[in-house]
Amino acid sequence: MAVDDVVAAMPLPPRGEVRRSILQALSAPSARVSADDRIRELSLTFVGDAEMAALNEGYRHKAAPTNCLSFPQDALPVLFRRDLLGDIVIAPAVVGREAAAQGKSLRDHYRHLLIHSTLHLLGYDHELAADAQEMEALETRLLAEMGVADPYLNQMHE
What EC number(s) has UniProt assigned to this enzyme (predicted)? Predict the structure, then answer.
């Protein structure tokens, strides 16, 4: 877990909470990662709005900061390490604004975004309506198991 200096003073989830949320997501079935695979590492970085906006522009062609981005590790030849899942980048200021606007606790919103981002690393996406429905249902179930309310209840979809 890395924290850029620009966000070091912002409220961030404790490491234990981060770990629990990511492990919860890793319990999901995945075509990309079998139960026999040993996932031991992913990177998580908290960045400021400017860096997140640059990443979002560079990778998604959207000129604004977003709450989180996921970058799955490409498949590697057997010769290389196979225990790297990918990278997650989160913008705490965006997360805080969203939690306040949506009337959610910051803790629960972080849990949701950590699960959401990890599911992207496992191969889930929400580009098509059917895929979005599957991913949202899985997120809702995983969060409910952690005692977190449905994050999509009463929320408009983009």
Answer: 3.1.-.-
Question: Is 120 marked within a binding site?
Answer: yes
For residue 76, what pLDDT is reported?
65
**116 marked as part of a ligand binding site:** yes
Q: Which helix (H) or strand (E) holds 91?
A: none
Domains of the chain by residue range: 2-145
The pLDDT, as a whole number, for residue 4 is 87
Q: What is the per-residue pLDDT for 31?
A: 66
Give strand pairing partners of 70.
88
Cα four-point dihedral sign 88, 93, 98, 100: positive
Which two structure tokens, joined as six digits, stand for 151? 């994050």
Domain 2-145 has CATH 2.60.40.290: no
Which pTM was predicted?
Answer: 0.89
State residue 102 phi and psi, 5-degree precision: -95, 0
